[in-house]
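re the bet — no i am not wrong, look at it urself. input seq straight from the record:
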Amino acid sequence: MPAMDLDDTLLALADETRRSILNRLAAGEARVTEVAAPFGISLNSVSKHIRILERAGLVRRRIAGRDHFLSLDPGPLDDAARWMQRERLAWTHRLDKLEAALRAEDAIEAARNSSRTPKPPRRKP
């Protein structure tokens, strides 16, 4: 996934209103006015959110006469999820290697300390 596409997707998902719009569209296609109805903001403000979602490729618009219908395109979400999974696996691998190195270091230090343990003093006859 190109970085710019990922940036657009993550930017779109960063806002609660836009996530709510996507949740609504997950249930099926809807008119812009239906999507905007539950929000306590102007239709113009909701339209700005919709444009950001369209720029990210998360929403498609279909025009029928005067009506604008919106639908969800999950492709960018799937791409972002795959990227996150790859990053998660890479970081898990790196952290596992770090943990193993730290445990080995701890074991070496413990062995050094046990060999340095003072021996009890010898008794004089």
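see?? The radius of gyration is 28 Å. told u. also The chain has a mean pLDDT of 91. so pay up
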